[in-house]
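ok trying again, last paste got cut off:
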Amino acid sequence: MIQPPPPALTGPGILAVLRAEHIDDCRPAIATLADAGVAAIELTMTTPGVLDRLETIVDEVPPGVTIGLGTVVDAATVAAAGAAGGRFIVTPAVAPDVIAAAAEHDLEVYPGGLTPTELIDSWRRGVSAVKLFPAATVSPDYIRHLHGPYPDLAVIPSGGVDISAVGGWIRAGAIAVSLGGPLLGDSLKGGSQAALRDRALRVVDAVAVARNR
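nice, full thing came through this time. structure:
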């Protein structure tokens, strides 16, 4: 039986994606996002030092905030993430070996895909949600069409999603929206944390408003 995605993701409805020149550049932003109510934070494997610092970062976040690894392309990384306290895995494409490793280590996994064939391939392997990537190549109506034959498919649009589009994706049936650059701005390069907090609060509010319509 497919388990529902965790409340840290589905509650606020936001998956923040942090990709930086070094993992230490992410730590102030993680604190800011958590303070603004963003509870699911993805640290990408393309960020140098991420595995070395993951356990420390997991220990630093407040209760209720979940840290996971993104851009994961092999099963070995899944094991390392689990050992360091990561709670979920995100892949850029269908990855049966990563899905199997995540199940073995009791981690959530959100595999990427664009076509119905790719998304349903992962869904049938027992994942709780799939990542629609790159979402900018389609529109929110894509989820509506997917939900015709697959009404229970839990979809997270990712890749090129702008803050202004969040409400449309949620109203179309997305369980959460994955946001990187449009949310983070220059906050990972010494930019304003106050501005990041304002953007995060806007997104949290946009999700809530969209769900109440």
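cool. The longest strand covers residues 14-18. The chain has one domain: 9-211.
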